[in-house]
Amino acid sequence: MGLCQKTNKGVTFAGTTYSHRWARGDQHEFTSKGQEDLKKWTDMVTLIVYPKVTHGEGLAVTANTVLGNYKASKATVLRTDSVPRTESKPAEHLIVVMFGRPEFVEVAFTRLRLHKGVGNAVVYSHRIYGKKAGNAASAWLKKNGPSTEKALMAWDAMPESFLPKA
């Protein structure tokens, strides 16, 4: 059983259940109980399937596109990492960014990988609201960043219902 799995109520990530709130195409967003308002949430899990990505090279291109989109959206890149392909496991990519906005700061951890031959991403995002959110976000990141990254990279299954039908 992985750290992120589909349940009747949504998905569970790192011990917290997130309910499905929004979807468009192959992107699904989930927030926890008490965070139903998508204009003001604190923690969100986003699952994205890239059905046309079926090999490592395509995944690398997708990861670079995601990174470019983050930069175009004025995100500060905090960390990137790639786990090389092995004989038993395809390559994976990690992108950690921070978005500074007038009303909030958002930290997003994105893991891209192939699962059952299909590209996908799981994104864990944390927001802090207010004009002085930067200091609080930095403190949150220092305290929670390593454990969040570890949980994300340990996540071991895309919910089957989100994968394209064969």
How would you portray this structure in words?
There is one protein chain. This protein is an alpha+beta fold and 166 residues long. Strands 1-2-3-4-5-9-8-7-6 form a nine-stranded antiparallel sheet, with helices on both faces. Strand 7 and strand 8 form a beta hairpin. The protein is globular and about 45 Å long. The N terminus is likely disordered.
Précis, in short:
This protein has 166 residues and is of the alpha+beta class. Helix content is 23%, strand content 43%. It has helices at residues 56-72, 133-154; strands at 4-7, 10-13, 16-24, 27-32, 43-50, 76-83, 92-100, 104-115, 118-129.
List keywords for this structure.
single chain; 166 residues; alpha+beta; nine-stranded antiparallel β-sheet; globular
Radius of gyration: 15 Å
Query: Within the largest sheet, what's the order of strands?
Result: 1-2-3-4-5-9-8-7-6
Q: Give the overall shape.
A: globular
Mean pLDDT reading: 88
User: Unreliable runs, pLDDT <50, ≥5 residues?
Assistant: 1-8
Strand content: 35-45%
H/E element string? EEEEEHEEEEH
Q: What is the count of helical runs?
A: 2
Count of extended strands: 9
Structural class: alpha+beta
Helical content class: 10-25%
Largest sheet: 9 strands, antiparallel
For the termini, the CA-CA separation is 23 Å
